[in-house]
Amino acid sequence: MINNKSEIINKLFFNELKEIINKYNNIDQETIIVIERIDNEIEDKYIKEYILNESNKLNEIVIEYENTNNLDIDKVILFA
């Protein structure tokens, strides 16, 4: 529960929360593979944090992987 006593605000909050939960429950296997490889193979914590926190950058990497079936970690780091 959020710290707001408004029923409608709480309802809106929970609707958004449900959308986020559904989004993460429906991530496809290829995306999971890419994210796990980034997490496991990039040693620089600042680059890793940047990529994992920037959804647009992460999405670019996933799309590149889907198009080429190749994830070049060095290239990911270079263009991060």
Summarize the structure.
Helix content is 76%, strand content 0%.
Topology of this structure?
Layout: H1 7-25, H2 29-41, H3 45-53, H4 55-68, H5 73-78
Helix pairs in contact: 2-4
Shape: elongated
Task: Count every beta strand, where a strand is a DSSP E run of 2 or more residues.
Answer: 0
> In DSSP terms, counting alpha (H) and pi (I) runs of 4 or more, how many helices?
5
**Main β-sheet description:** none
Which structural class best describes the helix and strand composition? mainly alpha
Low-pLDDT ranges: none
SSE succession: HHHHH
Please tell me how large the radius of gyration is.
17 Å
Amino- and carboxy-terminal Cα gap = 36 Å
| Helix fraction bin | over 70%
Strand content: under 5%
- Give the overall average pLDDT: 86
By oligomeric state, this entry counts as single chain
Description of the molecule:
This protein is an all-alpha fold. The protein has a domain at 28-80. Helices cover 76% and strands 0% of the residues. It has helices at 7-25, 29-41, 45-53, 55-68, 73-78. The longest helix is centred in the first third of the chain and has 19 residues, at 7-25. The protein is elongated and about 50 Å long. The model has no long low-confidence stretch (mean pLDDT 86).
From the structure above, extract its key features.
80 residues, 0% strand, 5 helices
